[in-house]
Amino acid sequence: MHLPRIAPWLLAAVTLPLSVNAQAEQACGHVTIADMNWNSATFIAHLDQFILQQGYGCDAELVPGDSIPTTTSMIEKSEPDIAPEMWSNTMREALDKGVKEGRLRYAGVTLSDGGEEGFWVPAYMVDKEPSLKTLAGVKANAGLFKHPEDPDKSAMMGCPAGWTCQITSEHLFDALKLGDSGFELVDPGSGAGLAASIAKAYERQEPWFGYYWAPTAVLGKYEMVKVDFGTGVDAEHYKACITQADCLDPKPTMYPPSPVDTVVTESFAARAPDALAYLSKRAFTNPQMNRMLAWMEDNQADGEIAAEHFLADNESLWSQWVTPEALPRIKQALAAR
C-alpha cells in the first residue's frame, strides 16, 4: 500500500508543548486554506498552513481553489476559511457583497504594491541610456528596437491575442501614439513566447520594449525597468475605457495597480483573532514575490518546498508577521525539518 509523504514539519508538531498547542487549537480549530492553481498562490497557501499550524496550533488543511469557485463557496458555505491570494478586481462585486452581508472580511493585502502591469525595457538599456525609463526617451530612441520582419519599423512586444491585456495594451499603444514614432505592436503568439522574447534579448543583451506584468518569475530573473508614461494614473478612465474592447477614444494613463488581498470568512475571523492578525501583516512586495517565483521555476519547486525555503531564508521578514509566542514554535518546527 502506498503511504502519502508526510512533511517533516508536520512530524515536528509532536515535539511542541501540548498545553500550548491545545490551547491555541481550541480557539483556532480546523482551518481550510484555498490552494489555488498558480505558483504564487500555492506558495502562500503552504506558507500560511505552516505558520498557522506550527505557530498558532491551527489544524490547517489545504483545499483546491480558484478565484470564482472559492469566492462563491466562501459566501454560500463559509468555506474555505482563507483565500490567501485573491485578485479582487475580478470578483469585486461578489466580494464586496459578501463583506456587506457579514460573511467575508478583507484580512489584509497579499501584495503590498498590488499586481503590476506596464511597458518595460531591460535595465541594461537604461544603464546605458537613462532616458529610456521614460516614454519620451523610448520614442526618441525608437530606432534601437528593430522590428524582426521590417527593418524600417520599430517593434513593441504586445500581450498575446485573446488575453484581457491584449485590449489594454492595444488601447494604450494607440493612446500614447507609439505608431507615430514608427512602432508596430507585435503579437508574441503566447505567454511563453512573450517570456522567451525577454529571455532571448537578455541573453544577447539586445534592445527590447513591450508589455509585461508582475509578480512573475520572468521579472524575478531579468531586471526590467517600467517605462514612465509621464501621465500618472487615471483609474476611472482605465476601467471605463482602456479595459473595454469597444472604447473609441483611449487616453494615456499608467496601469493602475491591481488589488491582491487575503480574504477570510467572518466566522474564522471571529474565532481566531491571533491568526487573523498574522494574515493582516503577511504581505509581499512585487520584487520579493518575483524573486520567489524565479526560485520556484529554477528549482522546479512546489508550494510546500517553496514555503520551507522562504521560511529558512527570510526569518527577518516573516518574524515581523507573527507573535513573540508563535516565533519560537515556528523556528523549532523548521529546525526539525
TrEMBL record:
It comes from the Bacteria. This is ABC transporter substrate-binding protein. Residues 30-312 form the ABC-type glycine betaine transport system substrate-binding domain. Keywords: Signal. Gene3D superfamilies: Glycine betaine-binding periplasmic protein, domain 2 (3.40.190.100), Periplasmic binding protein-like II (3.40.190.10). Residues 1-24 form the signal peptide. InterPro entries: ABC_Gly_betaine_transp_sub-bd. Pfam families: OpuAC (PF04069).
